[in-house]
Structures are given as C-alpha cells and as structure tokens.
Amino acid sequence: MEENIVKNGKDPFGFASFDKYESEHIAAPQYSYWKSVWRTFVKNKFTLAVAILMLVLVLFALIQPSFSKYDPLIAPNVNNESMRFIKPCAEHIFGTDNVGNEVFDVVWAGAKNSIIISFVCSFINMLIGVTVGAIWGFSKKMDKWMIEVYNVVSNVPFLLLAMILSYVLGASMGTLIFVMCVTEWIFVAYFIRTQVMIIRDREYNLASKCLGTSTWTMIKNNILPYLISVIMTYVARMIPSLISYEVFLSYMGLGLGVTKASLGRMISIYTSYMNGYPHLFWIPVIVLALLSISLYIVGQRLADAADPRTHM
Amino acid sequence: MSNEDREVILSIKNVDITFHTGHKKKVEAVKNANFDIYKGETFALVGESGSGKTTLGRAIMRINPCSAGEILFEGKRISGKISRADDRNVVRNIQMIFQDPAASLNERATIDYCVSEGLYNFHLYKNEQDRIAKVDKALTDVGLLPEHKSRYPHEFSGGQRQRVGIARALIMDPKFIVADEPISALDVSIRAQVLNLMNKLKTEKNLTYLFIAHDLSVVRFIADRIAVIHHGEIVEIAESETLFEYPIHPYTIALLSTVPMPDPIVEKNRKHIVYDPSQLDQSGEQREMRELRPGHFVYCTSKEFADYEEKISKLEKERNG
C-alpha cells in the first residue's frame, strides 16, 4: 500500500514541488477586450448613474413624442385662455405654454429632433472625418494639397454658410444636417490627421512594415485602436456641441422650419415670457443641459475605459 | 578558416546612404560600405552613437533607401526599386529585432496579434488551429507561455517584451535577422538571458545575424566577425578574436581602449586612447578596403596600409615571441 503511493509519486507526506509554469497557467486567464472595457466602465458608480440618466433621457425623448403626437402646427388649446401659462403641477408636470400646449410634450418632441440631428451629424462627420484623416495623416503626398483645402474650407464663416444654405435649400431637417456636416468633417479630419502623424512614425509601425503589413491594415490595427479614446472624446464633445448648434441655428431662425418641434425654437419663443413665467425658459434649458452633460460624461468615461492600460 | 568557400548570404557593395535635410543640406550617414556576411555567422557592427550602424541595418530592411551602391541578398539585389514578389521575399527572409521593446510593440494589440502579424500578412497558416499552434510554438521557443497570448505588451517586463519581439521575427522562419541593439534597452540581468536565447535559436534554426551594438564586451561574446564603423565609414573588419588581439585602425584601438575591465588594478592602469583623425594619411587619396591579413580588412590609403602592415608584423612578432 505505502509502496504504491510512493510509486505513483503521490507520497502524502512528501514535499510538494513548485512548478513555475503551472502557476502562470492559473495567473494568466484568457482576457477579452470589450468585456474589460465594460467592467472598467461600470466600476464607477457615478458613471453608471450618469449613463442611466443619459439612457433614460435619450429613450424618453425618442419614445415619448410618438405617444403625445405633438405637432407644433396644431395647438388644440389655443383658444382656451384657462389652459395657458399653467405653472408646473401634478396634472401638468412641466406646465403649459403661451398657446396652451403641454411643455412636457414640447420639450421631448424638441429633444427628439435635436438628438436625431446631432447623432446623425456626428456619425456622418466621424465616418468621413476619420477615414479621410487617417489617409491624410499617412500619405505625405495627400497632405500637401489637403492642407490647402483645409485652409480654404476652414476659413469659410460657418454662420454665413448656414444662412445661405438654409435660404437656398429651404429650412428642413435634411438641410440642417447638411449644413452641420458640409464643413465640419474637415475639422475632424484635420484633428485625426494630426493624431495619426504623432503615431505614424513610432517604432512599432516600422516593425509592422518590416513584417510586410499593408498600409490599410496598419491604419486599422496600429493607428485606429490608439485613436479610439481620442475619437470617443471628440464624439463626446461633438454631440453636445451639435445639439447646441442646432438650438443656436433654430434660435436664429435658420434651423428647422416651423413644422418641426425644436428645443432651439422653443427656447427662442419662451425667452420673451421669462419674466412672468420663468419655468417656460428654464425647463427646456435644463433638459438641454442634462442631455449635453450626461452625453459628454458618458463619452469621456467610455474613452477612458477603452484604454487597455486602465483595465488592470 | 578561409572565407572563400563559405556561402555569402548578404553582401553590401559600395553602399552610400544620404539623408537630405532641406535644400542642398545633406547628411552622409553611411559612406562607401563594403562587406559580406556569410551564412550561419553572427556579424557584429559596432560604433559610437550616430555612426550609422542602425541606418545600415535599416537599409537592409529596405526602410532607408541607398543613395549609391547595392545590397545583395542571396545574390539578388534588394536595394532600390525591386518587384513586389522580391519585396515579399525580402520580408519573408530578413527580419529585424528592434532596440526598444517598449516602443516596437503595438500597445493596443494582444501578444497573439503582435506575434501572428507576419503570419496574417503572408497567410502562412493552413487554418486557425494551425496559426494558434504556430504562435504557441514561437512563444514557447522564446521562453514565454501560450497563456500570455491574450495579454497586452504593457503587462510584460522589458525582457519578456523583447522575447515577444524575437518570437515575432522568428515565426516568419527567416534566414537572416538584423538585431538592432536588441539588448541595450534591457536590464543587465536580462541581457545574458536574451543573448543566450539568440544564440540557442541561431543554432536551432540555422540563422544568420547582423548584430548591431555599441557594447564591445557583448559583441565579443556573441559575434564571429566584427565590423567597426565610424562616422559612416567602416574602418575595420576582422574575426572577433583577431580584432581584439590585433586592432590596427587607430579608431578601433581607441574604441577598444574604452572597454571597462572588472579588475580595479587593470582599470586604474588603463590608458584611454583618444582617436585623432589627423594622424591619418592626409594625402587625399581615396581610401578603400584592403586585406591586411586573411579575413582582416582595414579601410585605408596605400600609405596607411604600409604602416599598418609594419605595425601588425611587429605585434605578431612580439606576441609570438
């Protein structure tokens, strides 16, 4: 019996040997990038709370208008004096405005359009900007003439361009999206170009070249992963700024026409009632601020979580 | 050992590498370099900072273009414009180990990707399993674990990262490796490990190294032959032991005089020799590589050659009694 145990190498009273490799097997579990990004992101309770707030705001803005069926052209209570300028109460959560509409409905309908416009514009701008910028940063030949194009385009006054385009094409959502993309992408491209140039000449790219990696694969695997966090930061700044742009243009009367609800138009109309009924002005402004800030914070935290160095 | 009957794997012929820095300004990084590297040897290139060692190494990798002369790999020209097929062939067969393991690995890619990048580019695997098997083998070969695959470079120590760099080069099954100061960024305790690993792999895989370094004691340990480069000119080429015993070019002598000795008495009595280019022949005659003894080349004019010949005969007489 005893002999058997020793023969099998399982002497219960013998010394346990230390196997360096065995310990590494345990210490090095398989690792997944996106899982770690998620884990890092949700670790911070504040971030999680802001992310939930952002989700609630965005989803509410996207869903609520299809229930309220708010249309700025129809004001059912316009002739009912008693329905105007009601302060926020249990029945009218955000109160009512100068034509007797529920501010609650108006705010979400406006927020929906603002969100759609800013998301679509950011997507288009980023898609064109990052693609052009990545190639621009890599190719010295392209840089020579692209920089001239950039100098010309970036010096066109934005407001002037927006005014002309919205007069020529007519105020609509399509026009607004076009206006906010037609020159904006080149700033993204320029930003990405500078970032790519910083990374382009690092030694690991040289190493990739020595391994026969094509330029495109190099952009995809060596350059863009480094830019994920910068791109996310850029998007996080861009979405709120596009929302405020939309609000600003609508406020100037250059944005969406009277047929579409818009936070900007709302704020511009309600400003005149600010003395008597401050809630009319402050409610849309607070919704706008909450939306912008939560989008910005979530974008920033996602950008941080995208860096694998924060994962451990 | 005669060099004639050994197979030449890489030869550098009258190579000049010039960088143009603005209008009519230029830097001649390498001037008229000439040497052959034989199959299976470790050829070291030593010189001070800025002497053009790395530039020459990178010219072989086709990163820096040659402004004159040509580089032949297995008898085929690989400098200047070559066909795509030839270029792929060069990439397959010549690989590089980089100086700084922290900078030469993609921080945002897993070790798995870093090592298999070359495999992906040339599709050197039959299927996914084959690729994984190859990566695992390459990692085990350099003393890492297959479990490390899913990690990122920043999780590794300098020595481990350099091993990843070596694995990445080896997985391509190259014939020739340019090792650009592979150990100068490493801790002294790790250097020996990496050098021994390189030596082991050399015999296992029948590799040829061009070992670029500035550390003479390391070069003496690893190299079969040594070329000394100074200000872009290769001044002396010889077998390692010959170079250390009979250094003949004044620059080589000066360089060797700077090697620190781990003996306080020897160290105290060590004379530093300062290289003074004005001692050289100033007649303006074009210098060229001349063979002083079999396998021992010096870059000199004919007058200098006569001087060196006299000196080396004297030295040999002294040493051999």
Q: Quote the beta fraction of chain A.
A: under 5%
Question: What is the total number of structural domains of chain A?
Answer: 1
Task: Report the span from N to C terminus of chain A.
Answer: 49 Å
Architecture (CATH level 2) name of chain B: 3-Layer(aba) Sandwich
The greatest interface between two protein chains, and residues involved on each side, is: A-B, 29 and 35 residues
Main sheet summary of chain B: 8 strands, mixed
Q: Looking at CATH, which topology of chain B would you report?
A: Rossmann fold
Strand tally of chain B is 12
Give Rg of chain A in angstroms.
28 Å
- Give the N-to-C terminal Cα separation of chain B: 23 Å
**CATH level 1 name of chain A:** Mainly Alpha
* Helix share, percent of chain B: 25-40%
Give a structural overview.
The complex is a heterodimer of chains A (312) and B (321). Chain A is flat and about 95 Å long. The longest helix of chain A is centred in the last third of the chain and has 37 residues, at 215-251. In chain A, α9 packs antiparallel against α11. By secondary structure, chain A is mainly alpha-helical. Chain A is built from 13 helices and no strands. Chain A has a single domain, classed as Orthogonal Bundle (MetI-like fold), CATH 1.10.3720. By secondary structure, chain B is of the alpha/beta class. Chain B has one domain (8-240): Rossmann fold (3-Layer(aba) Sandwich). Chain B contains eleven helices and twelve strands. Chain B has helices at 53-60, 84-93, 111-122, 128-141, 158-170, 188-205, 216-222, 240-245, 250-256, 264-269, 302-320, and strands at residues 8-20, 26-38, 42-46, 68-73, 76-77, 94-97, 176-180, 208-213, 225-230, 233-239, 288-293, 296-300. In chain B, the strands form two sheets. Chain B has an eight-stranded mixed beta sheet with strand order 6-7-8-3-9-10-12-11, sandwiched between helices. Chain B has a four-stranded antiparallel beta sheet with strand order 2-1-4-5, with helices on one face. In chain B, α3 (111-122) crosses α4 (128-141) and α5 (158-170) packs parallel to α6. The model of chain B has no long low-confidence stretch (mean pLDDT 87). The chains are: A mainly alpha (312), B alpha/beta (321). Chain A binds chain B through residues 21, 24-25, 28, 30-33, 202-204, 206-214, 217, 221-222, 225-226, 228, 308-309, 312, and chain B through 61, 63, 88, 91-92, 95-96, 98-100, 103-110, 113, 117-118, 120-122, 145, 147-148, 150-152, 154-155, 165, 168, 172.
